[in-house]
Amino acid sequence: MKKISRTGLSLLLVATIVFSCKEKSAEIDEAADAVMTEAVDTAATDSEAASVDKIISSSAAKEDPNSKRKFIRTADIKCKVRDVAKSTYVIEDVTSNFGGFVASTDLKSNIIEEDKTKVSQDSTLITTKYAVTNDITIRVPNKQLDTVLKSIAKQISFLDYRVIKADDVSLKLLANEMSQKRGQNSANRIERAIDSKGKKLDNVIDAEESLATKRESQDNSKIENLSLKDQVNFSTVTLALYQNDSVKQELVANEKPINAYRPNIGLQIWDSLKTGWFILESVIAFVVQLWGIGLLLFLAWFGYKKLKTKSS
Q1: H helical segments located in 98-244
Q2: Which phi and psi (to 5°) does residue 137 adopt?
Q3: Please, which residues bridge with residue 284 across strands?
Q4: What is the C-alpha separation between 88 and 68, in angstroms, rounded?
Q5: What is the pLDDT of residues 152-210, one digit of tens each?
Q6: pLDDT digits (tens, 9 = 90+) for 246-263
Q7: How close are the terminal C-alpha atoms of the chain, in Å?
Q8: Beta pairing partners, 246
């Protein structure tokens, strides 16, 4: 019996050890699977971000430091993000950090559908389906455009389109500068002619009008050049952000109908009795106010009776 008991205990101990080892192995396998899954998800996210980064980047957004050409660079992007509000804040911070500024932003929620469900006598569940969008325009230094676009790419989960343009305005700037010089020279000659030869009033007036026209043309060329230089120095990026449709549920109290505030029949009867008594008091008071007329009528009747008695 002792040998059998010892053998049984040995077998039980061995089975316990084997079972514990299996449980430990299962836990290790689960942990390894979790780590592998997390690594795959991280790799997929990084791969997605890298893919978007490559798509959104373009040679048109890069500036060649050795080139003497002047480009106006613009970018037009529509994309889906995980959270429009958070991505907007990130984009605004990125723009500020790279020396740019936000020209306009239009963050709004568009209601797609709204449903009201009465859940009890005094409450209603309002279910609202809405879409959050933002149309934002930013201006960033021309040299930082490519870097800013790569920073924005980290917020993108799906890219609808991106259009990047680089318009060469070198010749336009040169033409405006030459036009300014010609206008300045012409204006100087007209001024000298007015001072030296402008004797008659008509000639002076015509010369002054011609000078004003030249000055105006010169100013317009200067203003256009300043505008072009501003667009060259600061690129314009237009972003149309959107996210998956959201659903919000809110439990609100029902407004009681006016009938819920009506008094009971007993109170209505009591109020009617009081109202009737007040009316009766008003009638009595009104009749009492006519005592003078009643006295006159009584005297007239009494006099009539007297006259009638004497005549008979």
Answers
A1: 145-153, 170-197, 201-233
A2: -120, 125
A3: none
A4: 35
A5: 999 999 999 999 988 887 777 676 667 667 666 665 665 665 566 555 545 555 555 56
A6: 999 888 887 766 666 677
A7: 157
A8: 130
23 contact partners, CB below 8 Å, separation of at least 6:
none
**Nearest to 148, CA basis, from 73, 89, 98:** 98
In 3D space, the residue among 55, 7, 61, 6 whose CA is nearest the CA of residue 236 turns out to be 61
Side chain identity at residue 83, one-letter code: D
Checking if the pLDDT of 239 tops 90, the result is yes
Q: What is the Cα–Cα distance from 8 to 2, expressed in whole angstroms?
A: 10
**Mean pLDDT, rounded, for 8-16:** 54
Residue-averaged pLDDT of the chain: 75
8 A C-beta contact, residue 176 and residue 129: no
Question: Identity (one letter) of the amino acid at 158?
Answer: F
CA distance linking residue 233 with residue 102, whole number of Å: 15
**Helices and strands, counts by H and E, the chain:** 7, 6
Q: How far is CA 220 from CA 148, 171, 179, 227, 233, in A?
A: 33, 17, 10, 11, 20
pLDDT at site 196: 61
Residues 285-296: what's their mean pLDDT?
Answer: 82
- Rounded to 5 degrees, φ, ψ at 218 are -65, -40
Task: Give the chain's largest Cα–Cα span.
Answer: 159
Cα–Cα distance measured from residue 224 to residue 220, given in angstroms and rounded to the nearest whole number: 6
pTM value?
A: 0.56
